[in-house]
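Tutorial, part two.
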Amino acid sequence: MLETFDNPNLSNDYTIRILMPEFNCLCPRTGQPDFATLHLEYVPDKLCVELKALKQYIVSYRDQGAFHEAVTNQILADLVTATAPHFARLTAEFNVRGGIYTTIVAEHQAPGWQPAPAIELPPAAKT
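Running the prediction step on this input gives:
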């Protein structure tokens, strides 16, 4: 179960990035293990996901058979259900299998939420 805590800074939007390099599940056809690195980026609204609970949730997939596309979208859906973020993107980079790498990107954007315009900074001066 995903646990949450109150967003400690409701006064402005900010991005939380979480890297999970040890995700694994089972191929539903062969039963062979699939390994992936998950990249989660989200802009919280009122709630943030608690990291230990997230780790336990991710580990729960270890013995489950799931297609890459299905598991990526399910994880994102569960995170959105738990935290109701303004925006969330989950990128799942699966390791090579049969000479093929698979990357799945799933996104959620809350209705009516608009991100702040991107700020383009000049390159840093060389010293």
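The chain has a mean pLDDT of 95. In part three we will examine how such features are distributed along the chain.
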